[in-house]
Amino acid sequence: GCSINANSSDDTSSEVDTKVEEKEIIKIGTTGFFKDIVQEAKKDFESTSGYELEVIVFDDNVTPNIALDEGSIDVNFYQHVPFLDAFNKERGTNLVKYGEKGIACTYGIYSSKLKSLEEIPNGAKIGIANDSSNRTRGLRFLESNGFIKIKDGVDLPTKLDVIENPKNLDLIEIDGPKLISSMEDVDAVVGYGIYMLLSGKDPKSAIIFDNEEDTKRYADVIVLREDNKNVEWVKHLEAALTNEKMRKYMDEELEGAYIPAY
Amino acid sequence: MDNNLTILNSIIWPELLKTFYMVFFSTFFSTIFGFMIAIVLSITRKDGLNPNETIYKVLNTLINVIRSFPFIILMVAIIPLTRALVGTSIGPKAAIVPLTVVVSPFIARLIESSLNEVDKGLIEAAKSFGASNLQIVFKVMIKESIPLIISSITLAIISIIGFSSMAGALGAGGLGAVALTYGYQSFNTTIMYGTVVVIIFIVQIVQATGNFLYRKLK
Amino acid sequence: MDNNLTILNSIIWPELLKTFYMVFFSTFFSTIFGFMIAIVLSITRKDGLNPNETIYKVLNTLINVIRSFPFIILMVAIIPLTRALVGTSIGPKAAIVPLTVVVSPFIARLIESSLNEVDKGLIEAAKSFGASNLQIVFKVMIKESIPLIISSITLAIISIIGFSSMAGALGAGGLGAVALTYGYQSFNTTIMYGTVVVIIFIVQIVQATGNFLYRKLK
Amino acid sequence: MIESINLQKSFGNTQVFKDINLKIEEGDIYGLVGRSGAGKSTFLRCINGLEKYDSGSLMIDGIEVRDYYNKGIREFRKNIGMIFQHFSLMNRKTVYENIALPMECWKYNKKDIDKRVKELLELVGLEEKMNDKPKILSGGQKQRVAIARALALNPKILLCDEATSALDPKTTSSILKLLRDINEKLGITIVVVTHQMSVIREICTKVGILEHGELLTKGDVEDIFLQQPQSLINLLGEEENSILPSKGKNIRMFYRKEDIATNIISRMARKSDVDFSIVWGKLEKYRDGVLGSIVINTEEENVGIITDYLTTLGIKWRLIDNGQ
Amino acid sequence: MIESINLQKSFGNTQVFKDINLKIEEGDIYGLVGRSGAGKSTFLRCINGLEKYDSGSLMIDGIEVRDYYNKGIREFRKNIGMIFQHFSLMNRKTVYENIALPMECWKYNKKDIDKRVKELLELVGLEEKMNDKPKILSGGQKQRVAIARALALNPKILLCDEATSALDPKTTSSILKLLRDINEKLGITIVVVTHQMSVIREICTKVGILEHGELLTKGDVEDIFLQQPQSLINLLGEEENSILPSKGKNIRMFYRKEDIATNIISRMARKSDVDFSIVWGKLEKYRDGVLGSIVINTEEENVGIITDYLTTLGIKWRLIDNGQ
Ligand SMILES: Nc1ncnc2c1ncn2[C@@H]1O[C@H](COP(=O)(O)OP(=O)(O)OP(=O)(O)O)[C@@H](O)[C@H]1O
Ligand SMILES: Nc1ncnc2c1ncn2[C@@H]1O[C@H](COP(=O)(O)OP(=O)(O)OP(=O)(O)O)[C@@H](O)[C@H]1O
Ligand SMILES: [Mg+2]
Ligand SMILES: [Mg+2]
After folding, report:
1. Which end of chain A is more exposed for a tag (fewer CB within 10 A), N or C?
2. Which residue has the higher pLDDT, C43 or E280?
3. What CA–CA distance (Å, rounded) separates E285 from E169?
4. ipTM higher than threshold 0.90
5. Is E194 near ligand 2, meaning CB less than 6 Å away?
6. Which residues of B1-23 are buried (b: 16+ CB within 10 A; e: fewer)?
7. Residue C23 predicted with pLDDT over 70
8. Measuring CA to CA, which residue among C177, C169, C214, C216 is closest to residue C198?
9. C-D C-beta contacts closer than 8 Å
10. How far is CA B193 from CA A46, A57, A195, B202, D107, in A?
11. How far is the CA of E32 from the centre of ligand 4 (A)?
C-alpha cells in the first residue's frame, strides 16, 4: 500500500469509472503502550473522517518516527513531547505534534518491599526502563524527587548524565515490561502504572506518583510530518483519540493507568 | 480469558501469513546470498581452489561486521537500502531486507564449513578430469555436502523465525512480534504463549522436514 | 562529539568486561550442554548407536520449543529458573542463564550435524574392536569432527555476542546493550557505532581464532 | 569355531547369501575367495556382527552371533580383530594413536599400550611414520596401520578383508609370515578374504569359493587348486588356453608335494623317448612345499605314451581341449 | 610423451624423489613398481599436476607440466585419465552419475553421455548397479566405477594407481584386456602402478622399479624379469630359496619366449642321461607368450653335465646358492 500523499490525486488509472472507490487509507504508527487505545479510536475516526485507519504496531520507540519521517506512515501516536524534541534535534527531522491534547500515563515508584520513599536505603537497587523515552522520564522523576541530579541541557539523559547521587542508588536499566517481574530482585522500580495494571497488580499502589504537571508534560501526542500538519483528517483523529468515549474507556478498562490530558 | 482466546484466534491467521511471508522470502534470498558468499569464501580461502587472500579477507570481515551489529541497529542502519529495494522501510516486505542481510552471513558461514569438509580426494578426482573450479564447487563440493547444507538451512530457517520476531521494530507484525507486543508487553499470557505454541508448531515442522530431507539425501 | 567520545571511553571498559563475562560463561555452559544434548541426540537417532525414538523425540521437541521462543519472552519465561540458579533475575550473572538456555540447543544442533557426518566406516571399525558407545562418541565421532565442531562453536560464540545485546533487557549491560540504549535509543551515533566497532573487533578475533584452530586441527 | 548353516541374507531385493554352509575350525587359516561383489566382505561383517543376517545360523564358539547382542557384544568383538577393506582409519589420529585406540578402549595402562604399539609398528615397518596422520600415508602404509590395529588386542579370531591388496610383494610376504606365525604360536583362527591366489596358497589351510550366494566348493587348499573345480576356473579364468601352442597336444599334469623331487620329467623323457616341451607351468609355493601343474606339449602320436606313463606313476593328468 | 629428468620432490624433510629419470613413449604401457611408500602414487600425481615437484623437469608432449598451469591445465588434464588408488568416488552420486561426471563437465550432450556411460558400464560389468550409490558397492565394484570414470573422456594418457587391486582374477583379466585393447586400438599411453607382478607381465611393455627415490632399474618387462636385478629381488623377496630342496644342487634356468616350444627339458633328459627334478617354476604369461624360469634339482655330480648342455643351447642358467 501507498501512503495517502502518494495516491490521493491525479489518479487517472483505469479505476476511474469504478464508482465504488476504495477508501483511502491512513497509516498510523504506534507501540505496545497505545495499540489498544488507537484501536479503540479507530471506529470513531473512520466513521467521522471517511478514511480507513491502518494501525501499525512497532516494537520499538525509534522506528515509528523514522517511518513517519520517510513517509512510510502518515502519523504516529506513541511519544511524549520531550522525546519528540530530542528526536528532531538529534536526527535533524521536522516532525511536529498536532494540537495540545494527549494521553498521559501514570508514573510512579513501585516496590514489593518498601512502603515509603524514606525507606529507600542507601545503595538501593532501583529499576528504570531501558528505552530512552521512558528512561528519561524515570531519571527526571527521580531528580524531581531529590534522589539524583542530572547534568544540565541533556535531552534524553542516561545513567551517565547523573552528576549527583547522594544515596548512591544503583540504577539498573531493564526492559519496560520486565521491570514488573524484576520487582523481587530490586528494591524499587520506577515505571508506568499500566505495567502494574496489565500484570494484574494495582497501578495505584505506587509509593509516590509523578506530579500532575509532569504527568501532563509527558503526555503522549499525535505527531505528523511538518508538510502534513494541516491535513483535514488529523482533526478527526485527534477527536477520536480525545473524546469522552475514550475518557470513559480509559476509566473503565485501564483504570489508574492512563489519564486524559485534555 | 475467553476474550483473550478470541483475540488470539482472530490474529493468528493474518500474523501467521506475515510470518510465512517474511520467513519464506528471507530464507529464499539469504540462501542464495549465503551460497554465493560461501562459494567465494571456500574458493578463495588459503587451501581453496583459487586462493585469494584479499577477497577472502574482505568478505570475511564484511560478514563479521554484519554479524556484529545488534539486529535492531542493523535494521535501522540499512533503512536506506531497504527503501531503495522495496520502496518502504516498514511492514513485512521491508523486514525481508534486514532479515536477509543478517541471515545471509550466517548461512554463508554454515555452508562454508560444510564445503570445507568435503574430502580433498574428491576434489582432486574432479581436477583430474579437468573440471573447472565452478564445476568442482557445484558438481562436487555442494553435491557432496548437501545433507549438511540441508541441516544448516534448517537451522537458519529457525533462526530466521527467531529474528522475524524482532522485525516488529519495523512494524512488520508476524507471530513473534505479536507475542512480544500483544503478549509480553501487554502481560497477556494467553496471547504470549498461544503464539509461541504456534511458532513451536512451525519450528517442529521445519525441523522435521529438514531431518526428513537429510535422511533422504544422506 | 568530543563529549560523546569521553563518554564512550568511560563506558567501554566496564561494559566490555560485562560482555566478556556473559559471553565467556554462556559459551562455557552452552558448549557443555550443547555437547551433552548432541551426544544423546546422535546416539538415540534412528541410525544412531542405540536408537531410542522416545528419548530422541523428547529432546528434539524440547530443543525446538526453546528455539521457538522470541529471546526476550524466553528470558521472562525462565525467570523462576534464573532466580533459582543465580539468586536474581537481573544483571550480567542472571543473563548467563537465558543465554545458555537459548544457545545450548543451537550448539546442540550444530554439533549433532557434525557428529552425523562422521564416516560410518570409522564407527564400524571402532565397534569391531569392541569400543563402547560412549567411547565411540568421544574417541571417534567427536575426535573426527573436531574441526567442524570448532567452526560451530565459533559461530555460536558470535551468536552469543549477538544475543547478549538483547540481554540488556535484564539490566545486564554489556557492549550490545550500551549500543542499543545509549547509542541507538539516545540517538547518539558516536556511542552506537563506537560500541559496534568494538564488537566487530571482538567478533573478528573470535572468528580468526576459530579459523586458526580449524586449520590447525584439520 | 565358526560355523554357518543355511545362512541367508538379502540387501533389498538382491540376495547375497542364498545358503551358506561352512565350518572353520579353531586354528584354521581359512581363505574365502569369490568374484567381486560375491559377498565376501558381507560375510566377514556378519561374523563380528557388524551386519545382520536374515535367517539361518552363524555360530561362533557354539553361540549364535545374534545372541551376542544381548550378552556382551563388546567382549565378543574384543576377541575378533578385523582388517577392513577400506582401512577405516581415524583421520585425526596419528598412526600411533590409531593403533593404540583399541587398547585405550579396553583401558590398558599407558605403558602396556606404548610397548604393544611400538612392537606392532616394528612388525609392520612403520616406526618412522608413527606420528603422521593417515592422510599423508601411502596406500600400503595405511593398510599396514589397519593391520597393526587389528592385531592390537591379540584377538582369537582375525578377519582379514583384502589385507594385503595394497602391499608390495615383499611386504605382503612379511605380513603373511606374521599371520602364519601368530596362527601357529597363538593358535588364532584367521579368515582371509583376498583376490590374490598367492596369498591363499601361502598361508591358508582351507579355502572356500563363494559363488552365487553359495559356498559349494570348499576344502583343503592344495586339493582345490589341484582339482581346479569349475568354480575356481570361473574365478581365475582359464588364462593359459589362449597361449598354449595350437600345434600338437597339450597335457596338463598335476604335481603333488610328494611328486616334486622324484625326477618325473627327466625320467619320463628318457623312458618314453618322446619329445615334449614344457609350455606352461604353475609350480607354486604353498604353505609347506611346492605344488602345481605343468602343461607339456607334444606331438599327437606321443600322447598315449606319455599319459600311460603318467598313469602308471599315479600322476594326475588331463588332456587340454585346445579348441581346434 | 612423458619424460622426467632429475625430478626431485620432498614432503617436509623426507625426500620422496631423489632423482627420477624416465621416458615413456607414446603407446607404451609402462609399469611402475616399488615398495609401499616408494612414491609411485606421488609420481602419478605429478604427471597430471595434482602434486607439484620441487626441481628437475617433467614434460608431457614436450611441455613442462608446471607450465600447463598457465596455459590450460583443464584441457591438459582432460587428456589424462586417472584411476585413483582410493577410488575417490562421489558418495552422493549414483554409479551412472559418477561415470557421467567428467563428460558433464565437458558439456557433452545428454545423449552422447548416456551412450558412453552405458558402454562403460557394460565394459566393467556394472549395468545392474547403475543406480546404486558407491556406499553400498563392494570394494571391487567401486574400483570398476573408478576405472569407467577414468576412461570416460577417452584420454590420451591413462594413469592407473593400483587399478585392479580389489578385483578378482577374472575381472582383473578382463580389465587388463580392456586396457590393452584401448592401448592398441587408440594408441593411448598407459602408466600402471601396481603391486601385482602378474599385471605388469600381462600388459606392460616396459617397467621401472622405484627404489630409494630413484628409478635405476628400468627396461623391457621380459628383460627385467629374466635378469632378476637386485632391485626386483628387493621388491619380490627371494621367496623360493626357503623351499628348494637342500639335497643336491639347484640350477635355475631361464626360458625365453623362443625357447618355450623347443623340448629343452625332454631332450636334455635324454641327451645328458642324468636325473633331475623340476622343483620350482615360474612359467608365466606375458603380453605375447610364456616366459620364465625353472629350477631343477639334481645330484651334485650332474651339475657340470647339465650346465654344459644348457650353455651349448644358449640357455641362461644360474646355480643357486642354497645357503648350506
Ligand atoms: N548396504 C548395502 N546395501 C545394498 N547392497 C549392498 C550393501 N552392501 C553390499 N551390497 C551389495 O552386496 C554385494 C556383496 O558385497 P560385498 O562387499 O560383500 O562383496 P565382496 O565379495 O566383498 O566384493 P569385493 O571383492 O569387490 O570387495 C555387492 O553386490 C554389493 O553391491
Ligand atoms: N602430503 C604428504 N605429506 C607428507 N608425506 C607424504 C604426503 N603424501 C605422501 N607422503 C609420503 O610420501 C611417501 C610416498 O607416498 P606414495 O603415496 O607416493 O607411495 P606409494 O609408492 O604410492 O605407496 P603405496 O604402494 O603404499 O601406495 C610415503 O612415505 C608417504 O608417507
Ligand atoms: Mg569386499
Ligand atoms: Mg600409492
Report:
1. N
2. C43
3. 14
4. no
5. no
6. eeebeeebeebbeebbebbbbbb
7. yes
8. C177
9. 68
10. 32, 19, 18, 14, 50
11. 11
DSSP type of residue B140 = I
E124 lines ligand 1 (CB under 6 A): no
Neighboring chain A residues of B171 at a CB cutoff of 8 Å: 29, 56-58, 63-64, 67, 73
Asked if residue E180 lies in contact with residue E29, where contact means CB atoms within 8 angstroms, the answer is yes
Q: How far is CA E154 from CA B128, D34, E103, in A?
A: 13, 31, 10
D213 Cβ inside 6 Å of ligand 1: no
Shared domain for D60 and D209, answered yes or no, is yes
Residues E159 and E286 placed together within one structural domain of the fold: no
User: Helix, strand, coil proportions of chain C in percent (round to 5)?
Assistant: 85, 0, 15
Cell 485527534 identifies what position?
A238
Question: Are the CB atoms for D254 and D226 separated by under 8 Å?
Answer: yes
Ligand 2 contact via D140 beta carbon (within 6 Å): yes
pTM here is: 0.89
**Mean pLDDT for the stretch of residues C183-203:** 90
Contact B41, B56 (CB under 8 A): yes
Helix (H, G, I), strand (E, B) or coil at D178: helix
Residues E38 and E143 in one domain: yes
E131: containing domain: 2-235
- DSSP structure class, residue A72: S
Average pLDDT over residues B147-160: 94
- Please report residues of D whose CB lies closer than 8 A to that of E277: 260-266
**Which of helix, strand or coil describes residue C115?**
helix
pLDDT bucket at E243, cuts 50 / 70 / 90: low
Q: Which amino acid is at B178?
A: V
Distance CA B205, CA B209 (A): 6
Is residue D108 domain-resident?
yes
Instruction: Count the Cβ atoms, other than its own, within 10 Å of residue E72.
Output: 11
Domains of chain B: 12-217 (1.10.3720.10)
**Both E209 and E253 in a single domain?**
no
3-state secondary structure of A155: coil
Answer whether residue A154 shows pLDDT above 90: no
**Could you tell me the three cell numbers for B73?**
541497529
Q: Does B210 touch chain A (CB under 8 A)?
A: no
3-state secondary structure B51-118: CCHHHHHHHHHHHHHHHHCCHHHHHHHCHHHHHHHHCCCCHHHHHHHHHHHHHHHHHHHHHHHHHHCC
Q: Which of D84, D152, D153 sits opposite C121 (nearest CB)?
A: D84
Same-domain pairing of E193 and E47: yes
User: What is the CATH number for E281?
Assistant: 3.30.70.260
CA torsion A12-A15-A18-A20 (nearest 10°) is -100
In angstroms, the CA D25 to CA D39 distance is: 21
Amino acid found at B212: F
Domains of chain D: total: 2
Q: What is the 3-state secondary structure (H, E, C) of D39-104?
A: CHHHHHHHHCCCCCCCEEEEEECCEEHHHHCCCCHHHHHHCEEEECCCCCCCCCCCHHHHHHHHHH
Write down the pLDDT at residue E157. Answer: 95
User: Do residues D141 and D101 share a domain?
Assistant: yes
Q: Which residue, judged by its Cα, is nearest atom 17 of ligand 1? A: E138
Whole-number Å distance between alpha carbons of C124 and E131: 25
Same domain, D262 and D212: no
Cα E38 to ligand 2 centre (Å): 7
Indicate yes or no: CB of E88 within 8 angstroms of CB of B129. no
| Residue type at A81 in one-letter notation | V
**CA–CA separation, E293 and E284 (whole Å):** 9
For E257-299, the pLDDT digits (tens) are 677 666 777 777 777 778 888 777 777 777 777 777 788 888 8
Residue E262 carries which side chain, given as an amino acid letter?
Answer: T
